[in-house]
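Whiteboard transcription, Tuesday session. T.W. wrote the C-alpha cells on the left side:
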C-alpha cells in the first residue's frame, strides 16, 4: 500500500480501494491491540475545530490522541470564527505551525477543502454538509464485524440523502456493497456524489440505487441504516421535513421486510419516534453502540496512519 503519512481525509473517495482496505484493517488491528500505537503521538497535538455540536466525534478523536500518548485541543465556534474572525487560510496556516493534525466539523464542505488547501499537516473531515467519512469508516468496520464480508452484501438506507448517506454510498461503491437509498422526492443524495459512486461501482460491481419506496429498499437487506431527518444547520426546515419524512421511519414493520438477521444502524444522535422507533433503536438487531465504539478505532487508524504509522505485515 502507498503510505498514508500526511494524507488528508476530506471525502471517502480520497482513498483508493487498497488504501481504504488498509485503513479498515488497521482499525480492526488497533481495536484488538491498542498497544500497537501507544506512544505514537507522544508530543503531538491534534487541533479539533467544531462549528457544530458533537458528542461522539469530539470524545473519540480526543480519546484516540490520548491513547496514543498525544494531546487534542477542542476549539469551539466562538474560539475561531472561520470566515468572520479570520479566514480558513489563516487558520490552517497558523495551526500548521503548532500542531501535527487538524480535524474539522464545519457547515460548508468548502471550509474543509480550504483548510486542507492551506494546511501543511493532515486535515480530517469530521462532518461537513456534504460528507461524514469517519462515520462511514466506523460503520463499515461494524458491518465487517457483524457480517464477515462486505462485497455483495446489501445495505439499505432509509431517509434523507444527506452527508452520512453520501459517505456510506461512496464507501459501499468502493468495496462492492450494494447500496439502496429510499428517500422522499426532493431529498435525494447529491447528483454529483451519486455519479461519483456509480463510477466507483463500475469497478467493484456494487449496485447503487435511489428509490422512493422504503419497503423496496429494505427487501433482502443485510443492514438497515437511517439518520436524522433534519441535520445540523437545517433547523429552520424542521417543520417541513417532519411533514414529509414519516413514511420513511425505520420501525418494526419495515424491519420485517429485511433479512431476518439484518442489523440496524444509526450514526446517532437519534430521535426515537421520528426517523426510528424506540423499539428498533433499542432492540436486539441494533448495533448502534458498536458503531459509536468503532468511531474510536477507525479514527485512531486514520490518525495513526496520517502521522506515519506503518503497520507490520
Ligand atoms: N455520529 C456523530 O458524528 O455523532 P456526534 O455528532 O455526537 O459527534
Ligand atoms: N446528518 C447528521 C449527522 C449527525 C452526526 C447531521 O449532519 O446533523
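and on the right, the sequence the group agreed on:
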Amino acid at each position: 500500500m502507498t503510505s498514508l503519512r500526511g494524507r488528508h481525509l476530506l471525502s471517502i473517495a480520497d482513498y483508493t480501494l487498497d488504501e481504504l482496505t488498509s485503513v479498515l484493517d488497521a482499525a480492526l488491528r488497533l481495536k484488538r491491540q491498542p498497544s500497537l500505537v501507544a506512544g505514537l503521538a507522544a508530543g503531538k497535538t491534534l487541533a479539533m475545530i467544531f462549528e457544530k455540536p458533537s458528542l461522539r466525534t469530539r470524545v473519540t478523536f480526543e480519546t484516540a490522541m490520548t491513547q496514543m500518548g498525544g494531546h487534542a485541543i477542542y476549539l469551539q465556534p466562538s474560539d475561531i470564527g472561520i470566515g468572520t474572525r479570520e479566514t480558513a487560510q489563516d487558520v490552517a496556516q497558523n495551526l500548521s505551525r503548532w500542531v501535527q493534525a487538524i480535524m474539522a466539523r464545519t457547515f460548508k464542505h468548502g471550509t474543509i477543502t480550504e483548510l486542507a488547501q492551506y494546511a501543511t499537516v493532515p486535515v480530517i473531515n469530521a462532518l461537513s454538509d456534504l460528507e461524514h467519512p469517519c462515520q462511514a469508516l466506523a460503520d463499515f468496520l461494524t458491518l465487517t464485524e457483524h457480517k464477515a464480508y462486505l462485497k455483495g452484501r446489501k445495505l439499505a438506507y432509509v431517509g434523507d440523502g444527506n452527508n452520512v448517506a453520501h459517505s456510506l454510498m461512496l464507501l459501499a461503491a468502493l468495496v462492492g456493497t450494494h447500496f439502496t437509498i429510499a428517500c422522499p422526492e426532493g431529498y435525494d443524495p447529491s447528483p454529483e456524489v451519486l455519479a461519483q459512486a456509480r463510477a466507483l461501482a463500475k469497478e467493484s460491481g456494487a449496485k447503487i440505487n435511489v428509490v422512493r419506496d422504503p419497503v423496496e429498499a429494505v427487501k433482502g437487506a443485510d443492514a438497515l441504516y437511517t439518520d436524522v431527518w433534519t441535520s445540523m444547520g437545517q433547523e429552520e426546515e424542521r417543520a417541513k421535513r417532519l411533514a414529509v419524512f414519516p413514511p420513511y421511519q425505520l420501525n418494526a414493520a419495515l424491519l420485517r421486510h429485511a433479512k431476518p438477521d439484518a442489523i440496524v444502524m444509526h450514526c446517532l444522535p437519534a430521535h426515537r419516534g421520528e426517523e426510528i422507533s424506540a423499539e428498533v433503536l433499542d432492540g436486539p438487531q441494533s448495533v448502534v453502540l458498536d458503531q459509536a465504539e468503532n468511531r474510536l478505532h477507525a479514527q485512531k487508524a486514520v490518525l495513526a496512519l496520517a502521522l506515519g504509522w506503518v503497520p507490520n505485515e
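Someone added at the bottom: The two ends are 11 Å apart (CA to CA).
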